[in-house]
Amino acid sequence: MNEHVRVVEVGPRDGLQNEQAIVPTAIKIELIERLAACGYDTVEATSFVSPKWIPQLADAEAVMHGLRRRPGVRYPVLVPNLQGYACARVAGASEIAVFTAASEAFNQTNINASIDESIARFEPVLAQALADGVAVRGYVSTVLGCPYQGEVPLRDVVRVAARLHALGCGEISLGDTIGVGTPAKARAMLRAVADAVPMTALAVHFHDTYGQALANILACLEEGVRVIDAAVAGTGGCPYARGASGNVASEDVIYMLHGMGLHTGVDLDALVASGHWLAAQLGRVTGSRVGRARAAETA
Ligand code: HMG
Ligand code: MG
């Protein structure tokens, strides 16, 4: 296999939104710049959400203003509504992501809205973004289980993904927010969504709570997906998903993909170094197994 897989680095957003301590703005900016220098084409930078809900990312504007952008790198930001969209644009964002879930219960806790209400909020955001030439990604959370309602019917995942796509989201990221999925379920979920949305418009987003993330990614790669979300050093969780542990570590994903002969454009050594740097800033060891193995080899 010599195909390209696009790995979307979500650490600065999905990783840092869940840190207990507020990470200084300068560290966030350095993290994004380091990651862009590793060869990613997309580094999700921050969120323009309510600071009362996510105080960890309350400095979104300062992060976007402080960032030295590398040509060719995309720096999308999350926005929940028109207010967030307007602030993101003033701060220079040229790509955004909207987010909802396949579970009603999760949406109420995460964004204080039903699925339909959340989509109604996105409609004007999408209309404005499309008019402005701003690319939009749509996240669907809880695709393999919900911390509040448990099982999430596949038809709900398909319905929400298809709706976001029809509204103009060019890419739909399917999120196992609490990391409970297993490979056969992940494959079946992706297959069902791909009947309604082209596979080329789909991405997968796994959290590693039960240690299944790489196995799930492999199953989805075999099913045909070529866009994978991951977070450096395995940072993250979800503030509104009890028990959710980190995102799958980018280093581990890149190691697996390169080992399979797939191309990502990401320099694994530089990424491992960035993961150790971030972990040191956060006062702990990296959540990446590849990072820890590399450190042990050189100790
Ligand atoms: P609300 O409290 O229901 O709404 O929040 P509101 O519209 O009544 O606004 C309340 C206050 O927030 C007002 O301020 C607004 O001005 C302000 P006040 O008058 O009280 O001073 N406000 C804002 N401030 C800044 N930026 C904004 C904004 N909007 C309103 N954009 C809202 C509704 C959606 C805003 C809120 O629930 C929210 O911001 N939620 C964010 C939740 C979040 O970011 N969750 C994590 C991301 S999702 C995720 O991690 C999953 C993912 O990784 C995939 C996966 O793993 O599955 C993507
Ligand atoms: Mg996530």
Topology:
Elements: E1 6-9, H1 11-15, H2 25-37, E2 46-47, H3 60-66, E3 77-78, H4 82-90, E4 95-101, H5 104-111, H6 115-132, E5 135-141, H7 154-167, E6 171-176, H8 183-194, E7 202-206, H9 213-223, E8 227-230, H10 250-259, H11 268-282, H12 289-298
Parallel strand pairs: 1-8, 2-3, 3-4, 4-5, 5-6, 6-7, 7-8
Helix pairs in contact: 2-3, 2-11, 6-7, 8-9, 10-11
The protein binds 3-hydroxy-3-methylglutaryl-coenzyme A and magnesium ion (MG).
Task: Characterize the structure shown.
The protein is an alpha/beta fold and 299 residues long. It has one domain (6-298): TIM Barrel (Alpha-Beta Barrel), CATH 3.20.20.70. Helix content is 44%, strand content 12%. The chain has twelve helices and eight strands. It has helices spanning 11-15, 25-37, 60-66, 82-90, 104-111, 115-132, 154-167, 183-194, 213-223, 250-259, 268-282, 289-298, and strands spanning 6-9, 46-47, 77-78, 95-101, 135-141, 171-176, 202-206, 227-230. Strands 1-8-7-6-5-4-3-2 form an eight-stranded parallel sheet. Helix 9 links the parallel strand 7 and strand 8. Helix 6 (115-132) runs parallel beside helix 7 and helix 10 runs antiparallel to helix 11. The longest helix is centred in the middle third of the chain and has 18 residues, at 115-132. The chain is globular. It starts with 5 loop residues before the first strand and ends with a helix. 53% of the residues are buried. The model has no long low-confidence stretch (mean pLDDT 95). Magnesium ion is lined by residues 14, 175, 177, 205, 238, 247. Magnesium ion (MG) binds at residues 14, 175, 177, 205, 238, 247.
